[in-house]
Specification:
25 strands, six-stranded mixed sheet, 3'-5' DNA helicase activity, six-stranded parallel sheet, about 675 residues, helicase, DNA binding, DNA_helicase_UvrD-like_C, 27 helices
């Protein structure tokens, strides 16, 4: 019986086949794994560049390309006959000698590049990699057959041309050297390309190399596992090396923070870490995310990752607000009443004076008083006010405290609380230590052995204090993922300041976005640094994508009606091209625009996800349309603090509005369409 490994490219190409062809191909693979007499047999490839490459006829005029060694077969792709033979002849495969992962090479394309490099080398004495001898390059895993090409390169541009032709484990360390880095820099990049310690690398051991490459190969030991690999979404099975490493690490002695830009796989890491902890069975796991809607989405994803019902029940998926509400409910014996936004705004109107407006008072309460859990005027008088640019003398602080007290008193009188108040009270109920809450003798508590946090950048300090109190201080207590550059709310807390000194890991590669969408998105957001989650600031340096795609389409329309017609035309075209409706999303800044777009699309017989920009958080789609990106709509005027009241707050508001648009646009993995009528939003790149 063969040992069969499946590549993500194989399942992707399989999914694109016509249904009858796909059905026949699946049956053929199942027969092959079962060693059936009617199974396809390997066929030799003539004039190939790797003698181990073979093909298997799976369906009418379609065959798989496989790499074979002994009884191990790696199904690399499935293509029409002519394309499959061409692929098989063109490619060779190797094992990186430094980290032991499998590598795929388009040998024919590299051969075509060589003459141009040789001509260029004749015109210059300079060599890009002259600082490093062959031994240096071989030690960082450079393939011996690549060395002659490297020695011909005279400029960084020559190397960048090769990026699409090189395995990531070759490109990443060499890029560090090409950009002036040291061998130590190259090793750091190479380490990010492995998901486990390789031990002694045998470049002739195909099975071992495939097992070290979970992003490129998944072994099917039986038919059930084969069906699971071929039918489930890729993210259930195939994780990129850093994603696999962080999600499946045996144990962390301290809280962990994983940061990274859009499309780097932070949510996938959180999901798989929760699954890993649940399988370990040390205690209940909570997976926390931004909203209950996103929690529902993550819960359904977790159902796919964990197929063992007992293990799945060990993970609760929710948001912090629900956790706080439940803890307070169980402590008080009845559900707490939560004040609505309109009623709360009315209370702040009552409390506001001519000197301090409602927005200023609300921010002061949430970002200073609640953030630092200040209980008395004396504590407030001596507290720092990070992020608040308007200086307050003692008398002014007393006036603010009186106004806040008015609102708090009115809330108490009516028996209502805000969600942040509930979080603070829930944290107090759990206390500073939860080590004694893990047994059954602590009814009415919500203890967890592990907490995994997604979208961490938007949690308030009061919510962080609740999460810290909800899990004991122990190994594998808190695992946190987030990105300060995707912040949607003005929460800029460093975890260390709320009792969570986390060990940080950083992701640099966006696997979802194309280079074109990423570059446009970074210009949209502004490439400057962002604060929060960690001490100091985090920047976007080194953030990159690994594939090319179409440039974002930005269109101006003469009227809202014309813009709506353009949206319907584009979405209809996408559907005609075969894009499933669940892979399409439409987003806008206001509820009115969302309602109008949803109605127009429904009238045209189109049902796709249509949501406000906030609703795109944490999701991903093949194609995204963001409409109404006009001046006066984005940024939303009502969301901006007047500059005369607090210029720093206004700057934060503008950056938050940029972040909203950036998050929505970077949900698109394949195509991004942006439209407006009238004058364009000042955020759109020129």
């Amino acid at each position: 019986m063969p040992r069969l490994a499946i590549s993500p490219e194989f399942t992707r190409e399989l999914g694109s086949l016509a249904r009858p062809v796909r059905r026949d191909a699946v049956v053929a693979v199942r027969r092959f794994l079962g060693n059936s007499p009617s199974a396809p047999h390997p066929e030799r490839v003539r004039n190939g560049r790797d003698h181990r490459v073979t093909t298997l006829r799976l369906a009418d005029r379609h065959r798989a390309v496989a790499l074979r060694q002994g009884d191990t077969y790696w199904l690399v792709t499935v293509l029409p006959d002519a394309a499959a033979w061409s692929y098989a002849q063109r490619h060779r495969f190797g094992v990186n000698p430094a980290i032991g992962v499998i590598e795929t090479w388009d040998a024919e394309a590299l051969e075509r590049v060589e003459p141009a490099l040789r001509r260029s080398a004749q015109r210059s004495e300079q060599r890009l990699f002259a600082r490093f001898c062959d031994t240096d390059l071989l030690e960082i895993g450079v393939d011996g057959e690549l060395l002659p090409l490297l020695r011909l390169m005279t400029a960084e541009s020559h190397f960048e041309v090769l990026e699409p032709l090189l395995p990531e484990s070759q490109f990443a360390p060499l890029a560090a050297l090409a950009h002036g880095g040291t061998l130590a820099d190259a090793w750091r990049e190479l380490d990010a390309c492995r998901s486990s310690e390789p031990g002694v690398v045998d470049t002739g051991d195909l099975a071992a190399a495939l097992r070290r490459s979970p992003h490129l190969a998944a072994f099917a030991s039986d038919l059930d596992e084969l069906d699971r690999i071929m039918t489930l979404p890729h993210w259930c099975t195939f994780l990129q090396p850093p994603q696999h490493t962080y999600a499946n690490w045996a144990g962390y002695d301290e809280p962990v923070l994983v940061t990274g830009g859009a499309g780097t796989g932070k949510t996938l890491i959180a999901l798989h870490r929760a699954a890993h902890l649940a399988r370990a069975g040390a205690g209940p796991v909570m997976l926390v995310t931004f909203s209950q809607g996103l929690a529902t989405e993550l819960s359904s994803r977790l159902d796919l990752i964990i197929d063992d019902e007992v293990v799945r029940k060990r993970v609760e998926v929710g948001n912090v607000d629900r956790l706080a509400h439940r803890i307070v409910t169980e402590a008080e014996g009845r559900p707490p009443a939560v004040v609505g936004a309109d009623d709360l705004a009315g209370l702040w109107e009552e409390a506001a004076s001519g000197r301090f407006g409602t927005a200023f008072l609300l921010r002061e309460w949430e970002q200073v008083i609640l953030a630092q859990n200040l209980r008395t005027l004396e504590e407030y008088q001596s507290a720092g006010r990070p992020g608040r640019s308007v200086e307050l003398e003692p008398q002014s602080r007393a006036e603010v405290w009186e106004a806040v007290g008015h609102v708090v008193d009115r809330l108490r009188e009516s028996g209502r609380r805000t969600l942040l108040q509930l979080a603070s009270e829930a944290a107090a109920l759990l206390g500073e230590s939860t080590g004694d809450l893990l047994g059954e003798e602590a009814p009415g508590r919500e203890p967890y052995r592990h907490i995994v946090v997604d979208e961490a950048q938007d949690l308030h300090p009061a919510q962080w204090r609740l999460l810290r109190a909800a899990v004991p201080v122990a190994p594998d207590d808190l695992f946190i993922v987030g990105d300060p550059h995707q912040r949607m709310f003005d929460t800029r807390i460093a975890l260390a300041n709320v009792g969570i000194p986390a060990r940080r890991f950083h992701l640099k590669i966006s696997y979802r976005l194309s280079r074109e969408i990423l570059s446009w998105g970074v210009r949209l957001r502004g490439g400057g640094p962002a604060d929060g989650l960690v001490e100091g600031i985090a920047d976007l340096y080194g953030f990159r994508a690994v594939r090319n795609g179409a440039r974002p389409t930005v269109l101006e329309y003469v009227s809202p009606e014309a813009e709506t017609a353009g949206l319907i035309a584009h979405v209809s075209e996408w559907m005609e091209e075969g894009v499933p409706t669940q892979d399409i999303a439409v987003a806008a800044r206001t509820a009115e625009l969302v309602k109008a777009a949803r109605t127009a699309l429904r009238d045209a017989g189109i049902t796709v996800k249509v949501t406000v920009l906030h609703g795109m958080k944490g999701l991903e789609f093949r194609r995204v349309a963001v409409i109404g990106v006009a001046d006066g709509i984005v940024p939303a005027p009502d969301a901006l603090t007047p500059a005369s009241e607090d210029p720093t707050a206004r700057a934060h508001d503008l950056q938050r509005e940029r972040g909203l648009l950036y998050v929505a646009c970077t949900r698109a993995g394949e195509l991004l369409y942006v439209s407006y009528s009238g004058r364009a939003s000042p955020f759109l790149p020129g």
